[in-house]
Amino acid sequence: MKAGRRQVSTARGVALVRAIEMTRPPGTRVSSDPYAHRFVNPLSVQGMRLVGALGINRLTGIEGLMNFALARERYIEELMVRELRAGIEQIVVLGAGFDTRAYRLPDAAIVPVFEVDHPATQAAKREALHGVVDPLPANVHFVGVDFDRDDLGARLRGAGYRETARTLFVWQGVIVYLTREGADRTLAFIASHSAPGSLVVFDSMDSAVLASASATGLHFFTTAMGEKVTFGIALDEIVPYLEARGFADVEVFDHEAMQRAYLARRSIAPGVYIASARVH
């Protein structure tokens, strides 16, 4: 599968999880995305709901991953609002996929938002939002990047990114598909090309859990979307890992914290976590 098609497929799979959540009563949703249905086939939503009702998602471990995706959505959305209200000057969404926060969070309208992704994914996103979000907000900048070929810094600067501005980097649902070297390159860019106090937030999976039988559902789910999980960072290593790469004030929100904060009686995949850290 070509890279562009694969990335569209992955983005659509995550949007499907959000669209399914929108079929629940408002008071029971972990997170809400009123645009999620624009990116998916309604029959896929109904089919996955039926699979879930039959208990298949629970047996395969996919249910815990879907709940993690929803908790991740909620946590990062809340973090974005906090940072915007605290004076963050711009947002960079790395691997933006079909993320819609820039279109539905009022606080996001006050700063430049740079959505970085493969041009094929961005074209599919524009098409899906046509007629619903028209015109697209003037503060949102699509930065088309082929990560295998293009210079991320050059592309961002060409779109108006300011290296002297305090920036929030949202790096959601990406790092597990990279190599350690690929992750290091992105973190090195953030640490050396953003202002002190800038923040990066990303999700990962404990490498020990990733290599265990309990990750079978993750491998099945991501393979079905055309991706392969390749990289995890041990939970007890994430703080020194980030500190060694120029970051401080590391915070980790693990699967137990997500369970307590958002999921009540729902299950969640073991070993998943969200980390955030500031540039020195």
Could you describe the 3D structure shown?
With 280 residues, this protein is α/β, with parallel strands linked by helices. The protein has one domain: Vaccinia Virus protein VP39 (Rossmann fold), CATH 3.40.50. The protein has a seven-stranded mixed β-sheet. It is globular, with a radius of gyration of 18 Å. The termini are far apart. The mean pLDDT is 93.
Structural class: alpha/beta
Strand order of the largest sheet: 3-2-1-4-5-7-6
Global shape: globular
- Strand fraction: 15-25%
Helicity, as a percent range: 40-55%
The CATH class: Alpha Beta
CATH topology category name: Rossmann fold
Key structural traits:
280 residues; 7 strands; alpha/beta; single chain; 12 helices; Rossmann fold
Secondary structure elements and pairings:
Layout: H1 3-21, H2 42-53, H3 56-60, H4 62-85, E1 90-94, H5 101-104, E2 113-117, H6 119-129, E3 140-144, H7 152-158, E4 167-171, H8 180-192, E5 199-205, H9 207-210, H10 216-224, H11 238-243, E6 247-254, H12 255-263, E7 272-279
Parallel strand pairs: 1-2, 1-4, 2-3, 4-5
Antiparallel strand pairs: 5-7, 6-7
Helix pairs in contact: 1-2, 1-4, 1-6, 4-12
Question: How is this structure best summarized?
Answer:
The protein has 280 residues and is an alpha/beta fold. It has helices at 3-21, 42-53, 56-60, 62-85, 101-104, 119-129, 152-158, 180-192, 207-210, 216-224, 238-243, 255-263, and strands at residues 90-94, 113-117, 140-144, 167-171, 199-205, 247-254, 272-279.
